[in-house]
Write a structure and sequence with these properties.
Helix content: 55-70%
Main location: membrane
Radius of gyration: 43 Å
Membrane topology: Multi-pass membrane protein
GO biological process, one term: cellular response to increased oxygen levels
Protein name: V-type proton ATPase subunit a
Shape: extended
InterPro entries: V-ATPase_116kDa_su, V-type_ATPase_116kDa_su_euka
Strand content: 5-15%
């Protein structure tokens, strides 16, 4: 509890690490995650540090491991993930591990390269086979002739594709055959026609099946083409065009015997390639399976080794070059564990001279460490999103655990909706160790990380739903209504009471559209409902008016209490940092300003609730009018809430008016008096209490006498600080801005808490509209068809309830609750200008394999 109320007490320690034991010592520190290292080599480039070679070696090993993971994933081999994290490898095993990984990479690359070559050759031979099969019907060759020259015969009855006909034309006929992508056929044919000027004959046909591209591995549709041309120049042009369109060109046989011979040779080679390729794949899979057994361990070890050398690069080197000096921030409670970790590292390395540490004094502001568990982590993240707390200031997360889900529930008050949210969060909590939830997608992982926040939000929403008596927009009569309708009938009263009260009779009940219950009639109101709002209000026509008045006043009361509590927490900060003058000159005037105005407003609300009854409610004054008259001082007397109200209000206004100049000028004038009217005095400061370094307030305190503690002694650094400039104008301007912001913020922030009323009203009305549009229609249908219609209506009602009322309305209430904590509550006491303590811990290193074939 104490650790959550304030951050841990930190100290700056200096580690003296022997060169031979530094690696083992940091390995032990990384396993425990105790310290945060400071970079002592900020002026040195990353490429000029001592262990840059070791870091490059680790990066090379990471590259090899990424390649192994890619190949293992490509082979569909499962990657094992161990439950325990292996330790960082000893220095003696690093070279051996590097040699093994490099040897394995070379072997895998050679086998993979040979496999790709075999696969490419196989695909080319398959394409060649299909090309021969399709082009067999393109050209008919009966006899093979050598070209001779003779007169041109008549061409009326001869085909241009007849080889004997072409021979008689005296031309040197050539063929180019191959495969082309389906989408390039039309452009390819046009290019041939334009370039070759019609001296080519193109014949093509689509393959029945899709083939894999040997170059890209993509399965696409192909067209087989056969180009007939005559002339060597045209042939060169045709081949260049084929290269331009990335055609797969294969030799075309001139005779049927040559075609059969090529076909037989292709079949034999394809069978051989299949055999060799299968054996290569089996061998490659064996190698990858063996590598997959140890890849998880190797990945973790390399990451840890790289992290160790990265931390060693932050250390400075002793002049003797035999010792490394590191400065670390460490919680004072963990100093014993730090010494033990150094002893373990020295013992593992076998060094004769152990490494040791010293605590050194410093005036620098330490980082902020707040220890959390799986329950408090989500609430601490909400606070840290606003700003990491300054060192040792009050942590709002402790109170946010209760106030955040409560304010959310005030805006989300519905028993049914809250119970559904509670069940969903409870399901996540009970299955929090399930591995699929930890590795789920981003949205689901966000719900999982905030499971305890959802659990409390749902639980508090059940409570406020009972207070509002809302369950899916309907009231629940658990204890019986406190209102008695029969007491309003005239038959139950004496004739004397008939003259004093407006009662009902048979005619009134039959002809009146609206009947009014009068609580002043004896027996009508028998007492308040035991828990929450009476269910009879769900039937009243003025239900919305009553609930608006109740929720609006409740929002104002909760908001003022919340803000006042924030101002009170600021007093704890001033006490801790030993600035008691802030209590008298800042906190107390702020409390007086808040309570004399808005605290008095709460008093009037509660007083009117307690004093005025149903009989005297008609003469009760309006709180709003009375509150306005408090500032306007009306000339005519009004009927107040109590006797002497005017005098009390004038006293409160006088106190408020006096607190404003104190708030504006008290602190600056006090600091000026300390700076000018006193000699140097020592401010009693133990540890690290500087929240803002080099502020004007600290300068004045360090240059004046400690009146708060009554000390007359001088501190060591006091004389050094007195020579610094003290800027009264800057202090005055800062305090004036803060005071104006606070005074105006009290008004605007109080109005801001009315969002509790507005969101609650919106949620209730949306729930009521959804019920009226769906469930009421489904329940009013005739019984013959009602059962069939009710099932889809219930399903649609459930879907809309989840997506609109639970998710959308829940997100809206969640964001408004965050705003109320960040702006209205935390700005009263929380600076949030600290730096987060980030320990050197191996637990922060991710070891998951992501879907991009790399290691996170």
């Amino acid at each position: 509890m104490g650790s959550l109320f304030r951050s841990e007490t930190m100290c700056l320690a200096q580690l003296f690490l022997q060169s031979g034991t530094a690696y083992e010592c940091l390995s032990a520190l990384g396993e425990k995650g105790l310290v945060q290292f400071r970079d002592l080599n900020q002026n040195i480039s990353s490429f000029q540090r001592k262990f840059v070679g070791e870091v490059k070696r680790c990066e090379e090993l990471e590259r090899i491991l990424v390649y192994l993971v890619q190949e293992i994933n490509r082979a569909d081999i499962p990657l094992p993930e161990g439950e325990t994290s292996p330790p960082a490898p000893p220095l003696k095993q690093v070279l051996e591990m590097q040699e093994q990984l490099q040897k394995l990479e070379v072997e895998l690359r050679e086998v993979t390269k040979n496999k790709e070559k075999l696969r490419k050759n196989l695909l080319e031979l398959i394409e060649y086979t299909h090309m021969l099969r399709v082009t067999k019907t393109f050209v008919k060759r009966n006899v093979e002739f050598e070209p001779t020259y003779e007169e041109f015969p008549p061409l009326e009855n001869d085909s241009l594709l007849d080889y004997s006909c072409m021979q008689r034309l005296g031309a040197k006929l050539g063929f180019v055959s191959g495969l082309i992508h389906q989408g390039k056929v039309e452009a390819f044919e046009k290019m041939l026609w334009r370039v070759c000027k019609g001296y080519t004959i193109v014949t093509y046909a689509e393959l029945d099946e899709s083939l894999e591209d040997p170059e890209t591995g993509e399965v696409i549709k192909w067209y087989v083409f056969l180009i007939s041309f005559w002339g060597e120049q045209i042939g060169h042009k045709v081949k260049k065009i084929c290269d331009c369109y990335h055609c797969h060109v294969y030799p075309y046989p001139h005779t049927a015997e040559e075609r059969e011979e090529i076909q037989e040779g292709l079949n034999t080679r394809i069978q051989d390639l299949y055999t060799v390729l299968h054996k290569t794949e089996d061998y490659l899979r064996q190698v990858l399976c063996k590598a997959a057994e140890s890849v998880y361990t190797r990945v973790i070890q390399v990451k840890k080794m790289k992290a160790i050398y990265h931390m060693l690069n932050m250390c400075s080197i002793d002049v003797t070059n035999k010792c490394l000096i590191a400065e670390v921030w460490c919680p004072e409670a963990d100093l014993h564990e730090l010494r033990r970790a150094l002893e373990e590292g020295s013992r593992e390395s076998g060094a004769t001279i152990p490494s040791f540490m010293n605590v050194i004094p410093t005036k620098e502001t330490p980082p902020t460490l707040i220890r959390t568990n799986k329950f408090t982590e989500g609430f601490q993240n909400i606070v840290d999103a606003y700003g990491v707390g300054s060192y040792r200031e009050v942590n709002p997360a402790l109170f946010t655990i209760i106030t955040f889900p409560f304010l959310f529930a005030v805006m989300f008050g519905d028993f049914g909706h809250g119970f559904v949210m509670f069940l969903f969060a409870l399901l996540l909590v009970l299955n929090e160790d399930h591995p699929r939830l930890n590795q789920s997608q981003e949205i689901m992982r966000m719900f999982f990380n905030g499971r305890y926040i959802l659990l409390l939000m749902g639980l508090f929403s059940v409570y406020t739903g009972l207070i509002y008596n809302d369950c899916f927009s309907k009231s629940v009569n658990l204890f019986g209504s406190g209102w008695n309708v029969s007491a309003m009938f005239s038959s139950s009263h004496s004739p004397t009471e008939h003259k004093k009260m407006v009662l009902w009779n048979d005619s009134t009940v039959r002809h009146s559209r609206v009947l009014q219950l009068d609580p002043s009639v004896p027996g009508v109101f028998r007492g308040p409902y035991p828990l929450g709002i009476d269910p009879i209000w769900n039937l009243a026509t003025n239900r919305l008016t009553f609930l608006n008045s109740f929720k609006m006043k409740m929002s104002v009361i909760l908001g003022i209490i919340h803000m006042t509590f924030g101002v009170i927490l600021g007093i704890f900060n001033h006490l801790h940092f030993r600035k008691k003058f802030n209590i008298y000159l800042v906190s107390i005037p702020e409390l007086l300003f808040m309570l004399c105005i808005f605290g008095y407003l709460i008093f009037m609300i509660v007083y009117k609730w307690l004093v005025f009854s149903a009989e005297t409610s008609r003469v009760a004054p309006s709180i709003l009018i009375e509150f306005i008259n408090m500032f306007l001082f009306p000339a005519t007397e009004t009927n107040g809430l109590y006797t002497g109200q005017e005098h009390v209000q004038r006293v409160l206004l006088a106190v408020t008016a006096l607190s404003v100049p104190v708030l504006f000028l008290g602190k600056p004038l006090f600091l000026l008096w300390l700076h000018n009217g006193r000699s140097c005095f020592g401010v009693s400061r133990s540890g690290y209490t500087l929240v803002r370094k080099d502020s004007e307030e600290e300068v004045s305190l360090l240059g004046s006498q400690d009146i708060e503690e009554g000390h007359n002694q001088m501190e060591d650094g006091c004389r050094e600080m007195t020579c610094e400039e003290f800027n009264f104008g800057e202090i005055l301007m800062t305090q004036v801005i803060h005071s104006i912001e606070y005074c105006l913020g009290c008004i605007s922030n109080t109005a801001s808490y009315l969002r509790l009323w507005a969101l609650s009203l919106a949620h209730a009305q949306l729930s009521d509209v959804l019920w009226a549009m769906l469930m009421r229609v489904g329940l009013r249908v005739d019984t013959a068809f009602g059962v069939l219609l009710l099932l889809p209506v219930i399903a649609l009602f459930a879907v809309l309830t989840i997506f609109i009322l639970l998710i959308m309305e829940g997100l809206s209430a969640f964001l408004h609750a965050i705003r109320l904590h960040w702006v209205e509550f935390q700005n009263k006491f929380y600076v949030g200008a600290g730096t987060k303590f980030v320990p050197f811990s191996f637990r922060l290193l991710s070891s998951k394999f992501n879907t991009n074939d790399s290691v996170e």
